[in-house]
Amino acid sequence: MLVVKGDNSVNSNKHALVVEGGAMRGIFATGVLDTFLTAQYQPFKQCFGVSAGATNIAAYLCGQHKRNHAVITDYSCRPEFINLTRFIRGGHLFDLDWLWQITIADMRLDLAAFAKQQSEFFIVATDIATATAQYLKATPELMEQQLKASCAIPIAYRNYPEIDGIAMTDGGVADSIPVRKAFAMGAEEITVVLSQPLGYRKKPSKAPWLTEKLYKAHPALARASIARADNYNASIDFIHNPPAGCKINIIAPPANFKVGRTTKNYKKLSAGYAMGITAAAQYLQNIQP
């Protein structure tokens, strides 16, 4: 599904790509960006990704078609990665240590190709001490660890990866859809790939007291988690009502997108990937002169 918002007269080279996260829901964006790769479509001067959205952008900029399809539909579905029993016993629900180790060994990102491409890539993570969004500029040397920090969902992954000595966690806590940051950095056209259908708005936490208890060692992170719905919905409002001089292209899953954060059903994941391919094809058709 493609929707265009804002000033359609905008025509500049200040075009940014923003991709939302969402764990296994990232399969939709995988289909979108794989289609862009096949079409050799890469007009973006800057890219901003959060969690699974960041890993999708990384594969796109490295030119690795279907890499993340394999990561999501195979590696991420193995019990070594998502394991509820292990989590109940005090371990990780999402074992990023295992996932990073095996995918680096089996199908590492093409860091040499990334070094040659021209787009600036900002990976969003959250500083656990201040709960502020950190827009980490990716480099071939640091990108893998930066991606891990962005994907480190609090509680579900019990460690906090460090970048330059700063402990980080899931970028979605501080900025789930960094469209406002892209605009603040000069983007005049933003193509945003969402992982929820149009009309979705995040609901406020039903138990803020529980969040405060879970994050008692990190009070700023607790406050940011409680405010996450407001922050998310403010980004949605920006997307649907962009300021003058900003054009926003929305690529979102259709209403029948059935993939959730922990979905491991191959049929549902494959359908979600196909939906991404269809949405990207529509986008590319609509931008043809």
UniProtKB/TrEMBL annotation:
UniProt entry keywords in alphabetical sequence: Hydrolase, Lipid degradation, Lipid metabolism
Pfam family, one: DUF6363
Record motif DGA/G, residues: 170-172
GO molecular function terms listed in the Swiss-Prot or TrEMBL record: hydrolase activity
PROSITE patterns named among the record's database cross-references: PNPLA (PS51635)
Active site residues per record: 51, 170
Motif extent (GXSXG): 49-53
Domain PNPLA: 17-183
Classification via PANTHER family: NEUROPATHY TARGET ESTERASE/SWISS CHEESE D.MELANOGASTER, PHOSPHOESTERASE
Name of protein: Patatin family protein
Gene source species: Pseudoalteromonas prydzensis
